Every structure is written in C-alpha cells, then in structure tokens.
Automatic annotation (TrEMBL):
Keywords: Membrane, Transmembrane, Transmembrane helix. GO terms for cellular component: membrane. CDD domains: MFS_MosC_like. It is found in: Membrane. It is a multi-pass membrane protein. This is Fucose permease.
Amino acid sequence: MSEIIKPTLIAARRSTMLFFLVSGLGTASWAPMVPYTKDRLAFNDANLGLLLLMLGTGALVIMPVTGILIHKFGSKKTILVASFLIAIILPLLLIMNTPVTMGATLFSFGAAIGAIGVAMNAQAIQIERHYTQHIMSSFHGLYSLGGILGPLFIGGMIKSGLSPLIAACVVSVLLLIIALSQYHYLLPEQPVTEDQEKVKFSWPGSTVIFLGLMCFVVFLAEGSILDWSAVFLKDIKNFDPAIAGIGYAAFSIAMTAMRLLGDKFVDKLQPKKIVCFGSLISATGFIVAVTSPWGWLSLAGFTLVGLGAANIVPVFFSAAGKLKNVPAAVSLPAVTTMGYAGSLAGPAGIGLIAYFSSLPIALCCIALLLLVVSVSYYFKKF
C-alpha cells in the first residue's frame, strides 16, 4: 500500500465499499415491489415480463455510455449522481400507475444502476492499484450483502405495518445519507496519459471481448439461479412452493460470504486459479443439483455454485481495469455490458432450452459453459 496516502486510501476504500452496498441495496429493494406493481397495473405474467425488461434495457443502454461520462466528469461524480437517481427513483416505482410511465421509470432506474455499476468498479480498480494485494472481492461482497439486505429491509418494514411506499422512502433516505457522507472520500480521477487518450474511444480489443464473454457465462450462471432455482426445486425436486426460494438463498449467502473472504483466497491462489477452480466448482455444483436424488444435496449443489462463482467476476473486472494500453473507461463498460447481457438474456435462453428438452438439461448446459470458461481462461495469456 502507498504509505504517502494511506489514510486517504483507506477512507476511499471504505467509502467505495459502501457505494457497492448502495448499489446492491437499491437494486434488491425493487424485488419486493414487483408484486405490488403487478397488482397496481393489473398485469398478467406476460405483460409483467415485458415490463421487467425495461430495467435491464436501461442498464444495457447506459453502460457503454458510462465510459464517456467517466472520461468527462470522473467516476466520483458519476457515482454520486447515479446514487441520487437510484434513491429518488426507488419510491417512484410504487407510484407510477400507467404502463408507459412505469416503463419509463423502470428504464431510468436500470440506467442509474448500470451507471453506478461501471463507475464504482472503475473507482475500485483505481484504489486497488495502490495496494499490493487483491481487494476487488471485498467490494463485490458488499454488493452481494446489499442484495440480501434489500428484500429483508423492505419486507420487514412492510411486515411491521408500514406501507410499501413508506418503506421504500426509508431505504431511499438511507441511500442518500450514505452517498452524501461518503462522496468526499472517493479518489479524484487520475490524469489520462497520452497513450490512453489515443485509444480512449477505440473499439475494445480481443482481450476485452474475451473477458466480456467469460463474464457473460458467469453472469448467465448467476442469473439462472435467480430465475430458475425455485422452479427447479418445486417442479423437479418436489419442494413445497413456500420454501422453493431456499435454493437462491443458499446460493446468495454462500456467494456473499466467499466474496467477503475472497481477497485472501485470490492472493494465496492467484487470480487464474480462482477462475479455473471456481468455474470447476460451480460446474460441479450444477451437476450435483441436477443429478442428486436428495433435495438437501441439490441445495448443497446451489451452495457450491455460489462458492465457486463468487470471486470470478471480481477477478475479471480487476483484469479488465489493468490491461495495458486500454483505459478502464473503455474496458470496464464493455466487459460489464457483456456480462450484464448474460444475466438478462441467459435465463431466457435457459427457458428456451428447457422448453425443447428439460430444465435439468438446460442447467447442465450452464455447467458445460463453465467448464469452457475454466479451460479457456487457463490457456489465455494477458
């Protein structure tokens, strides 16, 4: 660690971790609001599915543009503005009562999530450059923690008697407090070198595309657990519908815990081993979940998926931000966009495969893709 700016660096790391928490908490707080939105708009499942695409579309549209915003205004200001937008828009998701206004609001919410996703990773990479060890996993651990706490906060407040709108406003105030109190501790943008300026807006190279494709697969695996684990446990393993969500809970807890501890593992094993072994463990988890004759072992399989995949994306983002002659403002938006596309389009593809074959076969296809990640990353030279 750079001793000259050690206190500043520690404060910047803490504040950036809290902005990762803001992103995870804000994003996950939307999940408990979905049923209320469906009832308010009197939507059927098909209409709701189309509406939900607006969130992902907003994120995908803004992510490539965020590199330009970071170049022009810096990641620090981009993080602050995106945090404010998330906090302001969150309660509006419970107010809009027409499909058009709801779709536009959800698109804007997704855009804010996409912008902070790129900008906070750019800030994290800038901080990591001053450390002698890997620290990226801890940032993503706070995002995962926010993903667990969001539904618990909203659900707990509603259960205690607060209206969903008031509960959302409470979370928004919390997000604003964190943003306002932590903004000044973020690092200012580093000067852009002449070589970086020349390639600032060039088309991403083959290494960036490779990392993006690898991210696509891992995000696909994570998204499939979110969208399909409950269906799999209920329809294939005969779980009670009331507890079928336990598969995603096991996955999420395992991923959060491993990310919070992951920096030490990455330092000891090195990033390449983390990706290769992590992909193998996740692939094994899918196979165990599918082939197990016992429900508890299927849950163990989903836990393995979370343990193995936890630190792969942080390694990819860290690698993207450290590529020679490719500034983070080019590599990060590209890798993030391709990865996020996997979390959106992937589960839909899994549904298509399941329709023409079966859900277990579809999940086995993800295991195969993870094996491809393991082998291809092993032979890739950076």
